[in-house]
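User: Could you walk me through two proteins back to back? I'd like the raw sequence and the structure tokens for each, with a short line separating them so I can tell where one ends and the next begins.

Assistant: Of course. Protein one, sequence then structure:
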Amino acid sequence: GGVAYKDAWEFRPPGIFWANYLAFLLFGRAELSVRLLDLIGLAAGSAALFVLLRDRFASPRAGILASLSYPLIYVPCGHWVTSQCESFQAPLLLWSLALWPLADDRAPSLKHCYLSGFLSGAAVLFKTPAIFFPLLLLVDRLLLDRRLGKEGRQPPLWATAGGIVSLPLAM
């Protein structure tokens, strides 16, 4: 009957609790509410896979195949593996990758860099080992900027870093 992080130690980050709270706010206080939010996340993850593969591999067919395969792999696992931290984290990480600028993009969108960082930072709030994902984004950005000869001018790097830390700092 206590409050996590106040009355008892809770080793999980607060992301799953926020997701459950959002589900209860949107759909009412029932188990079905969390499952509905999980299905919305599944659809968002499928959409991200489509965009990711369509853009990275220049293949709409690969995007369609991946976006259709994701629910076919996930749904048969049953109710005991759905609505877990990872199922809410996956769409955040997939969209973070889908929005990440391509390697040959000489003028990456600051908005995309920030959103990619923000989504990967939000994913860390579900499972802390995901911290390596935003760190890899920063390393990738540093290497891309170095290759393009932009070591001194790195707005995309700072936009990404700002996105990563903005939600955790707002807590």
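----
Protein two, same layout:
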Amino acid sequence: NLRKRADKNGYFKLAKELGMTVSVWVHELEDYDPSWGPISIENDVLWGKMTERYAAIFDTLLPEIDYLVLTVVETQIKMSDAELLLKLVLTILDQCRKSGKKLIFRSFVWHPAELDYVSETISRLPDDVIIMTKCVPQDWHLRSIDDALIGRVGKKDQIAEVDIAGEYFRM
């Protein structure tokens, strides 16, 4: 259990003592129960479960965190539609705001066509959502072009991810 491990090892306490902020990454949609019904904007059961999930994370499981980093790739179920993705991000953002947390949305995608719906979603998000973008469009290809979203997220704060360890290059 993450809560027990965090308490035992004192991670959150130490971070706060050092004046650090704490970020936790989440992947959605994960742990989706088919009994919740279809994945759609109209599915109130799904969005109720998402609301419950993040209320529990912020209120009980990890109240010490400052930032929630949302990634929508490398997940059980991929969001492949701008409207559905917007609904997901806004649902989680609502819980972040209620709990005094900041939401960071990762723009990473695997395929160029996915960048279109992610870009559309970002353009429609409120300015208090922070955007995290890899410096390259794919997974750490050091000789790649710059990611097209760098500097193109409106008035939102943006974090650029940089791989200094050479994940695929044994540096």
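The helical segments are 2-9, 11-17, 44-61, 82-99, 112-124.

Let me know if you want the two compared in more detail.
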